[in-house]
UniProtKB/TrEMBL annotation:
Alphabetized UniProt keyword annotations: Signal, Transport
Family matches, as Pfam families: OprD (PF03573)
Stated family: Belongs to the outer membrane porin (Opr) (TC 1.B.25) family.
Signal peptide extent: 1-24
GO terms assigned for molecular function: porin activity
Keyword Transport (UniProt): yes
Superkingdom as given in the UniProt entry: Bacteria
Protein name as catalogued: OprD family porin
């Protein structure tokens, strides 16, 4: 029995302890049709990576994505039934064989091993059955998941989904309990499903897992404090545990301080398909908000001879120094970040915001991946392998009119590898620009 199902009685017992049966009838009173909604999300994405590495080529792709999501209400009664369904379409606007490989479009490997042009379009569809009793919701099918141990990738043209089951309980105000188990994933740049693997384990076919199980709790019921704890088992690869704490201290109406911390522990389990893993990774941040200005300082540390690894193509890297190009997660890496943000509402330009950050990391790779061939590409002679990244984000969200809620995001990153880093990351020296236009539409 996987560990996620050992947590299931907790959710059931908590739901059953709520004596107000009428609450379920009220929650489901809108009905299957009256409580339904249909949303359409259009995303236009352009990625351009200018490589400064010897022998590497530049990559450039442009595409238009569309995601339609239908969510029904629940049938009346103590136990309500419903259905969620979605359909996705990605269309290539530009991306010839000589410039393919930015990750927003499907990759096509030719017979000679070179990347060919992506197909002109790709699509997928899925659905999940759901039921709700009191404040507990159960889903089975294709899921959109977002938590620190399994978060579908949302930074490309289309989102990532997972196939399995999930359970969420919100009986206690301010407390979210959740758990689940998934066996397949639909990556953001593919049409079909595949087994779950990790970012680094994807280099080895043996690194695919039969399923991932998770359980967690998130608390937001105390003013100015949020905290959560999660645990996940990627079968025969790892057990991963996560905890965070975030606090906002309000000085006055204009000034506040926000300290916080994130912590992951990853340990190999079962058949250890990716070898021995014993990794502790954490980050600390302190943010000063002063009117329209935001200044953040962050420190991050990886303690372990393997990198901090996570679900392939996903966003489950809840660390402060995870940037556009690098996550600063190499074995034994220490990194810091300084970031400045400005909300132009302070200049009577609501909807316009910008941020600029600089991150720098140093790693001791002399012990990296010793006895673990799955991560041996991290081995290097340098004790002080270094790299840095500079990121600029400018975003505008239309505030009114026919284009209300349409947003335009321009992101530019410069990443450079220092002594020793070129030997562990062959694509370390890059300049990358991304332009992402999002247009969410509420159909009904």
């Amino acid at each position: 029995m996987s560990f996620a199902f050992r947590f299931t009685p907790l959710f059931i017992a908590l739901s059953a302890s709520i004596p107000v049966t009428a609450q379920a009838t009220d929650d489901n009173a809108e009905g299957f049709v009256a409580g339904s909604s249909l949303n359409l999300h259009l995303r236009n994405a352009y990625f351009n990576r200018d490589s400064h590495n010897q022998g590497a080529r530049d990559t450039r792709e442009w595409g238009q994505g569309a995601v339609a999501r239908f969510e029904s209400g629940y049938t009346p009664g103590i136990v309500g039934f419903g259905l969620d369904a979605h359909a996705m379409l990605g269309v290539k606007l530009d991306g010839g064989g000589g410039h393919a490989g930015t990750s927003i479009l499907p990759t096509h490997v030719k017979g000679d091993g070179e990347l060919g042009a992506a197909p002109h379009s790709f699509s997928t569809a899925g659905a999940a059955l759901k039921l709700k009793a009191l404040d507990t919701e159960f889903k089975a099918g294709d899921l959109f998941l977002t938590n620190p141990v399994i978060a579908g990738g949302e930074t490309r043209m289309l989102p990532q989904t997972f196939r399995g089951i999930s359970l969420i309980n919100t009986s206690v105000e301010g407390l979210l309990l959740e758990g689940g188990k998934v066996s397949f994933t639909k990556p953001y740049n593919q049409s079909g499903h595949r087994r779950i693997d990790t970012y680094y384990g994807s280099l080895d076919e043996r690194g695919k897992s039969k399923h991932l199980s998770w359980a967690g709790a998130a608390w937001s019921g105390t003013p100015n404090i949020t905290t959560s704890v999660y645990a996940a088992e990627l079968k025969d690869i790892w057990n991963q545990y996560y905890a965070d704490f975030d606090y906002t201290y309000v000085v006055n109406e204009q000034v506040s301080l926000n300290p916080g911390a994130h912590f992951y522990h990853t340990q190999d389990t079962g058949r250890a398909l990716l070898g021995s893993i014993d990794n502790n990774t954490y980050s600390l941040h302190l943010t000063l908000n002063a009117g329209a200005h935001t200044v953040t300082a962050a420190y991050q540390r990886v303690n372990g001879d393997t990198p901090f690894d996570y679900i392939n193509l996903g966003d489950s890297v809840y660390l402060d120094n995870s940037r556009m190009y690098s996550d600063f997660n190499a074995p034994n890496e220490r990194s810091w970040k300084l970031q400045y943000g400005y909300d132009f509402a302070g200049l009577d330009l609501p909807g316009l915001s910008a941020s600029l950050s600089y991150s720098r990391g140093k790693a001791d790779l002399t012990k990296a991946a010793q006895g673990n061939s799955h991560y041996d590409y991290y081995r290097a002679d340098g004790k002080d392998a270094q790299h840095w990244e500079r990121d600029l984000d400018i975003k505008y969200v239309f505030q009114e009119g026919d284009l209300k809620d349409l947003s335009v995001l321009v992101r530019y990153a410069t990443h450079r590898g220092g002594q020793g880093y070129a030997s562990i990351d062959g694509n370390s020296n890059n300049d990358e620009m991304r332009v992402i236009v999002d247009y969410p539409l509420n159909v009904f």
